[in-house]
């Protein structure tokens, strides 16, 4: 099955204790699509400026990531500049929306018929516009962030009410629900509409929460985190890509998707940008999956 | 097999968002022994003042916790007063060592022959004195805290070098090893001597680290944490109690001990003091173990 990915596409400056990069390929749609490439074909929906290097288009297309709805308009590509001091929390130094300010996702007919949809962390108004164009999607998912929870809650709640899966980090889940206990908070979020809440907890892993089950995925024991940027997006990419490759929404599929998401994200944080994601193959993923499974097997 | 538990015995004042208690039974040796009671017989080594209520002795003895080496001397029992604002971090309001300042653990002959030893978080000098009296122990374990890492590191390293298992929380592991990456830090701690490092991560669960394996135990999804005091000690009590009940140090035994420790701690945090620990039976523990196992089963 095919996966449609909507989100930001950026040229980022990132500095971590392990180095720095300038104008490197980033953005939620990039990390998610590059993370899903080993599982399924995908299409990205986004916008870039005419400064966006041609080699990035080539990278996407080489990985069977369709760019028909990746619009290029005159101007500069979205730019984020950030710094990690302790690898757990990014400090934003600069954000330049640039052409992203004019983003108005319009899907081509092919993309409207994708079976799986991932709405990356963008303005809920835009997420809603995409949802409206996707009547036939089998499974829909969204991510969000504190900025929209505080600034666009009404629209965000509409999005959450419509999707099957909410990806959210633990601080934002507490902010969204105003509940401190993380399991009570997940329950409250579930009552907002989605069938499944996927709570991301950074270096502590993640858990999936539904009416039927709760499933904890530990983090993959990475020894050297080079750059955490895109960890959540690459987790979602591995998760959604695997889901789309299987084509059902059963408990065991979801649990395996959690492990595939975890493993995919573990590769992503070992390099800047998508440097590692672009090179890994399904065998690399399966090898780490085996290690991770052993670490939770009684 | 029998378990010897050395640690503090206290009359605590604790305040959390769910209430407060005054002069309630606490201390590392109490939480550990009451947590191990469903798995094995134990003996506590500690000291209290003549204000220590007789009913607490009765509670311990009723649960087959031997108090021969629980010394009573004139004076007041160790007192800790603390407050939790967000249930994750205690704010110490007052500490009165009282008779605990004169603690000099001397074991009776029976206790010297215990097979399993847990050294709760006390001055490493005292931990060393107990270790010297326990030549025949099969498995020894210790806990510690930031106070000793900064203030008594040389002696603490001697203790760590001698024990089989180090229980430590993640912040303290980073402090002890001066390594930020938690898996690298666990590796460094292992090189200090123990066969096994058990890293406690509060609401995120724990992991066990050895040369042969790594095992992640998620936290039990408690919906209402009433008082986190003693969570780490009751985890260690469930862990060590189960280990002593099985009598080997195999990988599968250790992994199950992680789950038993987690489940036992989950009961402890649902009440003040040992109010819940004292009432639970092995069937309650097994029921939660089943739930927890399901939440990590693919």
The gyration radius over C-alpha positions of chain A equals 18 Å
- Straight-line N-to-C gap of chain A: 34 Å
Helix content of chain A: 25-40%
* Poorly predicted ranges of chain A: none
Describe the structure.
Two copies of one chain form a homodimer. In chain A, 38% of the residues lie in helices and 26% in strands. By secondary structure, the first copy, chain A, is of the alpha/beta class. Chain A has a nine-stranded mixed beta sheet, sandwiched between helices. In chain A, helix 1 crosses helix 9 (231-246). At the A-B interface, helix 8, strand 13 and helix 10 of A face helix 8, strand 14 and helix 10 of B.
Summary, kept brief:
Two copies of one chain form a homodimer. The first copy, chain A, has 298 residues and is an alpha/beta fold. Helix content of chain A is 38%, strand content 26%.
Layout of secondary structure:
The structure is a homodimer of 298-residue chains.
Chain A: E1 3-6, E2 10-16, E3 19-26, H1 28-36, E4 42-49, H2 54-62, E5 65-73, E6 79-84, E7 90-96, H3 109-112, E8 116-119, H4 124-132, E9 139-143, H5 146-151, H6 153-162, E10 165-169, H7 170-177, H8 182-191, E11 196-200, E12 206-209, E13 214-217, H9 231-246, H10 251-268, H11 282-294
Parallel strand pairs in A: 1-4, 1-8, 2-6, 4-5, 8-9, 9-10, 10-11
Antiparallel strand pairs in A: 2-3, 6-7, 11-12, 12-13
Helix pairs in contact in A: 1-9, 4-6, 7-8, 9-10, 10-11
